[in-house]
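Changelog-linked ticket: iron/sulfur cluster example.
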Amino acid sequence: MKIEIDEKSGFCFGVVRAIDMAERELSKRGQLLCLGDIVHNGEEVMRLERRGLQTIQYPELDSHAGRTVLLRAHGEPPSTYEQAQRLGMSVVDATCPVVLALQRKVKERGAALRAEGGAIIIFGKNGHAEVLGLLGQTECDRYVVMTIADLESIAFNRPIDCFSQTTMSPTQYLSIVSAVRERMQRAFGREEVPLQVHATTCAQVSNRKQEIGMFAAAHDAVLFVSGVKSSNGRMLYQECLGVNPRTFFLSSPDEMRIEWLQGVERLGVCGATSTPRWLMEAVARRAAELAEGSYER
Ligand code: SF4
């Protein structure tokens, strides 16, 4: 059995940047708080925690006055910065520049739409950190939708702007947008409607979908490595599975099952934009041990 790791899988630049910032800070002071998981990958979080990173949740922030906290790539609403300032904390802001640009756009359009009685629709996961960061940018009427059914409670007879969480599927975003347009056309009774659609899925993710599909198609079986909390991981896993039914999801080498490797000559190992390279290598090594194969770096 030949094992190949997908060259293009692994951390996106926003996550690389956040981890670099954390590691620089840890080298200086040996400890750093991180508000929420720095990356949706338990193995990588544990590696950084061994170096002194302490992951805390939002309700715990108040008990860390005066300390240094890293805000991760997903971004935060303004209320988090205000709270950190009130507590006299130093902030290491690792918000991804792509997310930052999106937050600014939501803020700017939110102010305009609020004045016009309009609304913002965000295609994303309710409760996801990035979505919470976006919702916090504006007091304009705003909705988070995951499916077309979620549009039911929205009034469409007013100006609307659509945004997508950066890691969502561009194809699904387009189908949400066309459902919004249809409803607005019905509500206004005309073709031309005051709808603005912002292309805010991240290229690092949308390009990955096509590339990973080609990788999955080129192998007899695929081991998809990702943390269970990663929405990008779920999306890319579904893409691989759609192309290659022998795609198996795992978060660590220990979860591998020998029957996944039966009859496989070319095995592919790939992962999400939150999957560290070292973890994919560990999975490839484990597969090689189980099947007495070799893998290409
Ligand atoms: S997926 Fe894109 S937007 Fe999200 S952190 Fe990575 S580079 Fe930034």
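Closing comment: Example verified and attached. The chain is about 40% helix and 20% strand. The mean pLDDT is 94.
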